[in-house]
Write a structure and sequence with these properties.
By secondary structure, the protein is an alpha/beta fold. 40% of the residues lie in helices and 9% in strands. Keywords: Hydrolase, Signal.
Length: 320
Amino acid sequence: MRILFLVIGLAAGLCFAATVDAASPGKLELKDGDRVLWIGGTLIEREQIYGYWEAMLTASFPDRSIRFRNLGWSGDSVWAESRGMFDAPAEGYKRMLAMSADFKPTLIILAYGGNESFAGPAGLERFVAQYKKLVDDLRKPGVRFAFLLPVDMEPASTVDPDLAMSFNKGVVAYREAIRKLADAENAPVIDLTRAAAEESAIAGRSLTTDGLHGTAVGYWALAHRLRDQVASTREGVVLPLPANAHPPEPSAASADRIEQMRLAIIAKNELFFHRWRPQNFTYLFGFRKHEQGNNAVEIPQFDPLIEKQEEVISALRQGN
C-alpha cells in the first residue's frame, strides 16, 4: 500500500555508514560546540514532545557536542502574534528575542511562512519585510541562520480537498521568497516539502492528525528527510519506528541507545519548556506578578535539572 509522504517542517536500532569528511554544498552543518535554537510555529513547538528531529541531528554528529533549545509557539508568525498572551504581540516578540539572547545560540533555525501564506499574494511583501526584521533582531556576532520552508498540507480524510489544494498552491510563493531571503543571508534552506510515495511498515498511517499537525510517525519520517539535508559526520542514521502515533512517556524503558537518547531529549525539552513558559506565567512575570511574583526566584532551579539531562544525552551520544 502506498501512502503520500508529506515532506514537511521530526526499523530498529541505530546504524551508521561511512564517515563524511566535509560539508556538502548547500547542506546544513552543525559544528562542535553549537548551540542550536529552533524558532517557529506549531511544527516546531510539537517537535519537542517527540524529539525525533533533535535525536536525528544529535546522532548524526556523535563526535560533536551540540545543544538544542526549542522556542516554538503554536500558531506563531513572524510578528509573534501568538506570544503576547495577555500582553500585546510586541511584548511576546520582545520576550522571544530576550530568550534567544539568553541561550547565546550559534545557529538559529527559523520556520515561518505557513500561517502567513493564508494572506495570499497581498500579504507576501509585508511578510518578507517582517521576516528580514526578525532575522536582524535575532542577529548577534557569530550567529548563523538556517531556514526551514513552510510545509504542504497533507491530503487527509479530515481535510477539505479544496482547502488543501488552495493552501499548497498559495504557499509556493512564500517558499520562493524565503529562499531569496536565505540566499541573501548565505544561509542553508531546509526543504522538507516535496511529496514522495513510500512503501514501508507505516503504510496506511497518516503523517498528520489534520493535514498539518504531525503525528509521531510524521516526525519520525521527516527526521530521515532532515538527515538527508545535513552534512553529518555519520551518514545513514536510522531511528526506531514509533509503536503508535503518540509520544511515549519520557520514563519509558528502552534497550535501544538512540531511543534512550530521544527519551532523554524529551525530558530535557519538557524541563526547558517549564523554564521559559511556566503555566502560571501571568502570576510570576505578567500583570498579576504583584500576587505571586516572589515565587519567580524558583524558575532558575530548572537549570541544573536541564544540565543533568544534557549530560545524559551527551553520554548516550558518545555510546556510553
